Amino acid sequence: MARNVSDSDSVRRQNRGLVLGALRVQGPLSRTALAAGTGLSHASITAITHDLIEQQVIAELEPAERQDARGRGRPATLVGFNRHVSAAALFELDVNRARLSLVDYGGILVDRIETPITPTTFAESTPTAFLADRLRQLQSRNPVEASVLRRVAISVQGILDREGQSLRWSPIAHLANKPFATELAAEFALPVALHKRGRLLAEGARWLDPALHDASVATVFVGSTVAMGMTFRGQILGRGDEGATEFGHMNHLPNGALCRCGMRGCIEAYASDYGVLRTAYSVPETAPPAPAVPAQQYEDLIARAEAGDRNATHAFNVAGRAVGFGLSRMMAVFDPSHILIVGPGARAFGLMQAEINAALASALICRVNGLPQVVAYRDEREPVFKGLLMKTLNEIDQTDFATLA
Amino acid sequence: MARNVSDSDSVRRQNRGLVLGALRVQGPLSRTALAAGTGLSHASITAITHDLIEQQVIAELEPAERQDARGRGRPATLVGFNRHVSAAALFELDVNRARLSLVDYGGILVDRIETPITPTTFAESTPTAFLADRLRQLQSRNPVEASVLRRVAISVQGILDREGQSLRWSPIAHLANKPFATELAAEFALPVALHKRGRLLAEGARWLDPALHDASVATVFVGSTVAMGMTFRGQILGRGDEGATEFGHMNHLPNGALCRCGMRGCIEAYASDYGVLRTAYSVPETAPPAPAVPAQQYEDLIARAEAGDRNATHAFNVAGRAVGFGLSRMMAVFDPSHILIVGPGARAFGLMQAEINAALASALICRVNGLPQVVAYRDEREPVFKGLLMKTLNEIDQTDFATLA
DNA sequence: AATTCTTTTTTCGAGCAGTGAAATTAATGC
DNA sequence: GCATTAATTTCACTGCTCGAAAAAAGAATT
Q: Cβ distance B225 to B171 under 8 Å?
């Protein structure tokens, strides 16, 4: 049984976590602001910050560093994360790109390695070797940060196993069923976490708009795949097995268009870039999907649709209908207050909106509660990276530093 | 902001809640068993039970009451809930029946009032008057329990508003948009909670089978309606707005069969009793659904199908297909380890199983993770009542007594 | 019948984290 | 230089858990 007992230790963990969380969300704060933000007394904040400073987790900012909006009274001393106390390595694995970012504890990007991915990349070298190579390279280029590296986090697409340590299936060729997370953890003696890209989108979306931070939000990515992540009143839904959310592969039409995953009738088969292109060019639904669609080609199609081209607009209508019915069906199970559309497909939102709304209108829950706000975020400002970053740093905060003696 | 600060008060609440929770789940226990079950030290258990006994929340059982499986050593003294310290009134509102049960703090049924409901019941008298009448009647018949009544809980079908205090929509005629929960709370000066029937099914299912207590389970009710509740690792999904789960009204086929809710193509329109009957008798899909189906008629249809009647088996196949695709779509968002089918339709599970599995097999998540266990519970032993009971008593435990000075 | 085990429960002193109130600190304004 | 203001720290106290030791209550043994 998990130890649910509450004792002075769990109290300290909880309250230190609150302090670190406030700093993570709001940036450097004065002790008074921390007391207000966390609800703890000034006395407790003094004790907690004293400990955290002693352990070098946080530090007082130099007076020079703070912009002095002076008033009367003793000026506040801000405390903020000690950037040098730890670091994290963040991999983003996509169908056609791998990116490794080294960030410090303050969330500042230190170094980055990008590598194109081809369908044969992980056939030629194992995923473990591929990732280990790049991580070693990054370590040798940044010895200082490497010495305080505490976490490796990997954003992937696909379905994770129950333990969240490997992929059962992935659209990235030759990546599924390889124990790279475990092997990497062993080789570098570091915790390695796998995160579903869709889930990170939801995490990232919370940082796009502060108003969303504590709301129930479904974030839908539309692009080379279709994916979704959800937050429920500020909590990410699902760690581990339960939220194997595969929105893009929810069935839209039984026996429908062939999807990249091999099944038929998935939302993705209609709404992803390859699906839209296939429809626009009247390629049969059962034709094998293109392995990758150049970004330019997708952009061109959007432009043509916006110019009024019948085939193109039809294709986006079909896509919108698929997304709309998917959302309407999802809402029968889970009813978020906001729906965000992100990714390259967000640019085509105007072309899909009418069909999305029509489909939503056919859901009882929408008729009763009204249509949810569906909003497209075009300038996505890298929500996946942001999500991966914040999730990983937050994990360090809460696990390593909230609990440190 | 909710006060997330942890202090000695929250420690006490948490640990007293743990003790009460263990007693709720496992029945009367010795202090040693409580220490083992909760993870608290013997010293703490002594202190906590001492306080709870002093406040009459729990009591030591008379030695006579415990079956003595004696061994050596000092015999254990069991402690259990003091049944007389509080009571709850539980309403179950159905399409054709209202039931009010009075239960004591030990979960023992004290008294019960059943009333048939007709489509005009809540037009002739307001829901508030109807409920208040019966509650007063119960109070006057049981003055002792009435004096310690602490909660009124109401099981309803339909869609709740964001605050969970009234129904936005309900299949029960004239019940929606009446503020009966608020009015009842004011009149009796008691907290009144509205619970979705589907949600309670999920709660109740946890008590049907101890193995399910901490699993992720979707419980599907098939009968005069189709509804679902979900637990995630032992936590009921959704309190309040988010889980406005209306599984029965998830769209199955765009522009499909007419549902009682007025929309078209809902799962319920194919899989509920009226849906199956409509299909079996080749009534057009767009014919208005029968307001209520006699239980006997549904049983007869099952019997006919089991005897091989073509029209009947076809109807159940259609129903299974609707439920199966609904589940397959749900699993793209939420992936439970177990699926339970309960309600009158559980008897027809054998007739629907093949189509359910076929539909599930078309979901990527099932192809990858394997089909979930779909099990029918025929002898449902009143999961709704059980769920309402346990949820309400647990709420009293955690809110009133875990925190009491 | 007295003594020895065995198991359950309570007692006791220590440790720890949070709190409010009062004191201290460090600037501003006159 | 001194009053004023606002941020922090100090201090005395509270309440909770914990481990170890003691007490309690029968069973088994002699």
A: yes
Higher model confidence: residue A164 or residue A398?
A: A398
Q: Which of B102, B105, B103 is nearest to B138 (CA)?
A: B102
* Structure token digits, residue A342: 């992100």
What values do phi and psi take at B354, rounded to 5?
-60, -45
CB contact under 8 A, A40 and B5: yes
Per-residue model confidence as pLDDT tens digits over A91-150? 999 888 999 999 999 999 999 999 999 989 999 999 999 999 999 999 999 999 999 999
Tell me how far CA of residue A363 lies from CA of A215, A254, A337, in angstroms.
Answer: 21, 19, 15
Q: B4, B245, B368, B369: which to substitute to probe chain A, counting the most A Cβ within 10 Å?
A: B368
Instruction: Please list the residues that pair with A338 across neighbouring strands.
Output: A217, A373
Q: Name residues whose C-beta falls within 8 Å of residue B308's C-beta, 6 or more positions apart in sequence.
A: none
| B74 Cβ contacts chain D strand, under 7 Å | yes
Q: Which residues in chain B have their CB less than 8 angstroms from residue A40's CB?
A: 5
Domains of chain A listed by start with CATH number? 8-81 (1.10.10.10), 85-190 (3.30.420.40), 209-380 (3.30.420.40)
Chain A / chain B CB contacts < 8 angstroms: 173
Q: What is the mean pLDDT of residues A391-404?
A: 90
- Nearest-nucleotide field for B41 (CA, C1'): D18
Show Cβ contacts of residue A268 under 8 Å, excluding neighbours closer than 6 positions. A225, A226, A248, A249, A259, A260, A261, A275
Cβ B4–A18 below 8 Å, yes or no? Answer: yes
Distance from CA of A107 to the nearest CA of B (A): 25
What pLDDT does residue A63 have?
67
Interface residue B220 vs chain A (CB under 8 A): no
d(CA A316, CA A320): 6
Beta strands in B121-254 (DSSP E): 149-156, 159-160, 167-169, 192-196, 217-222, 226-232, 235-236
- The C-alpha atoms of residue A315 and residue A278 are separated, in whole angstroms, by 8
Q: Is the CB of B330 less than 8 angstroms away from the CB of A335?
A: no
- Contact list in A for residue B334 (CB cut-off 8 A) is 242-243, 245, 333-334
Please, which positions of strand C sit below 7 A from a protein CB? 5-13, 15-22, 25-29
Query: CA A403 → C1' D18, Å?
Result: 19
Nucleotide nearest A30, CA–C1', reads: D7
Taking the CA of residue A217 and the nearest CA in chain B, the distance in Å comes to 10
In whole angstroms, give the CA distance from residue A320 to residue A326. Answer: 10
Concatenated DSSP letters for A67-135? -----SSSPPPEEEE-GGG-EEEEEEE-SSEEEEEEEETT--EEEEEEEE--TTHHHHS-HHHHHHHHH
Chain A, nearest residue to B161 by Cα: A369
pLDDT on residue B234: 60
Q: Are B266 and B251 in contact (CB under 8 A)?
A: yes
Our measurement of the distance from residue B81's CA atom to the centroid of its chain's CA atoms, rounded to an integer in Å, reads 22
Rounded-to-integer distance, Cα A79 and Cα B405, Å: 37
Q: What is the DSSP string of B314-340?
A: HHHHHHHHHHHHHHHHHHTT---SEEE
Tell me which of B329, B331, B337 to substitute to probe the interface with A (most A C-beta atoms closer than 10 Å). Answer: B329
DSSP E strand stretches across A183-274? 192-196, 217-222, 226-232, 235-236
Give me the mean pLDDT over the A314-343 stretch.
92
B214 — pLDDT class (breaks 50, 70, 90): confident
Contact B48, B69 (CB under 8 A): no
Protein CB footprint (7 Å) on chain D nucleotides: 4-12, 14-21, 23-28
CA of A368 vs chain B CAs: smallest distance (Å): 6
Residue recorded with tokens 């948490």: B14
d(CA A21, CA A57): 13
A 10 A CB-CB count for B399 gives 15
Give the Cα separation of B385 and B200 in Å (integer). 8
